[in-house]
Design brief:
The chain is an alpha/beta fold. The protein is built from seven helices and eight strands, in the order E-H-E-E-H-E-H-E-H-E-H-E-H-E-H. It has a six-stranded parallel β-sheet, sandwiched between helices. A two-stranded parallel ribbon has the order 1-2.
Length: about 190
């Protein structure tokens, strides 16, 4: 028996020749976050966009930063959570892209702070450029009551129902991500 954490990964196993009769798809199990109720959002406040993950090329932070360049700097804040020391060359690259943007690099955080971290966001963006399995950050965002904007790659597409729990875009069409973020800034409700 083989277990895949997402339908997308299960399809890949089958594509590589694993008999479907030996395959089960079973997503991760999560307990609710111990998060306080989300206060009503002030529509005049800047949209708080979040990114949580490894600062590495295939997680796509550079795509998100490029999308933010088209947003009015006073209508959003980008909160980036991820270890700044894991891939220092990439961290330098994204820091350069963030120059002049309303972006804050907040480093890594301890697991006990998960609810607090997601409480600092209005939306999580998961701009992965590779087929994620069943992204933990999306599960955590949903536990915190956050919508997700994610790339149509792997397990992200399995989790995010477009226009219901978030928005999806083609990972290699950054203009589509920009359009989604512009919509959220203009229509935060």
């Amino acid at each position: 028996l083989f277990v895949a954490p997402s339908p997308a990964l299960g399809k890949e196993y089958a594509r590589f020749g694993l008999p479907e009769s030996r395959l089960r798809v079973q997503d991760y199990g999560f307990a609710p976050l111990d998060a306080p109720p989300r206060p009503a959002r002030d529509p005049a406040a800047p949209l708080r966009i979040g990114f949580v993950g490894t600062l590495v090329w295939h997680k796509g932070l550079h795509v998100l930063l490029e999308a933010c360049q088209a947003l009015p700097w006073d209508r959003y804040e980008l909160h980036v959570f991820g270890d700044l020391d894991t891939f220092p060359d990439y961290t330098r690259r994204v820091a350069q892209l963030a120059d002049g943007l309303s972006a804050h690099f907040l480093g890594r955080f301890e697991r006990r702070r998960t609810a607090e971290v997601y409480g600092q966001m209005d939306v999580l963006v998961a701009p992965s450029l590779w087929p994620e399995n069943s992204p933990l950050v999306i599960h955590e965002a949903f536990q915190a009551g956050l919508p997700v904007v994610g790339s149509r790659m792997g397990g992200t597409e399995d989790l995010v129902a477009h226009d219901e729990w978030g928005l999806l875009y083609d990972a290699f069409a950054p203009a589509e991500l920009t359009a989604h973020l512009q919509r959220l800034v203009a229509e935060p409700q």
